[in-house]
Design goal:
about 40% helix, Transcription Regulator spoIIAA, 7 strands, five-stranded mixed β-sheet, alpha/beta, about 25% strand, about 120 residues, two-stranded parallel ribbon
């Protein structure tokens, strides 16, 4: 799985550099998210700008991140999401619980505000 992690204080930005977040990659992403949460990070931005397709396993990995950080500073999905990714989130009716923002910068600002509060 190709990705970058940019740690910024008590939170991190994970940019997924894959076209598909599917059953092949999702278990690895889940594991990596758990390891990141155990490092004491208070929030995470998952940049899905490069992802064109997410299946149910990928959605499960995204929800793992949500569960790990929902009681902390937060978990954000960032980037100009591909229409297929948006469609799956909407079909699953998860747009009401997932914090989806248009850019990593917006998500970082939100995490910084939460850190101050």
């Amino acid at each position: 799985m190709k990705y970058q992690i940019d740690k910024q204080g008590h939170f991190a930005v994970l940019t997924l550099n894959e076209d598909n977040l599917n059953s092949v990659l999702a278990p690895n992403l889940k594991s990596d998210l758990i390891f990141l949460s155990q490092e004491g990070l208070k929030g995470l931005v998952l940049d899905l700008s490069n992802v064109k397709y997410v299946d149910s396993s990928g959605l499960s990995a995204i929800l793992t991140g949500y569960r790990l950080w929902k009681d902390e500073a937060g978990f954000y999905i960032a980037g100009q999401l591909h229409p297929m990714v948006i469609k799956l989130i909407e079909i699953s009716r998860l747009e009401s619980i997932l914090s989806i923002v248009p850019s990593v910068e917006v998500a970082v600002e939100q995490l910084k505000k939460a850190e101050v509060a």
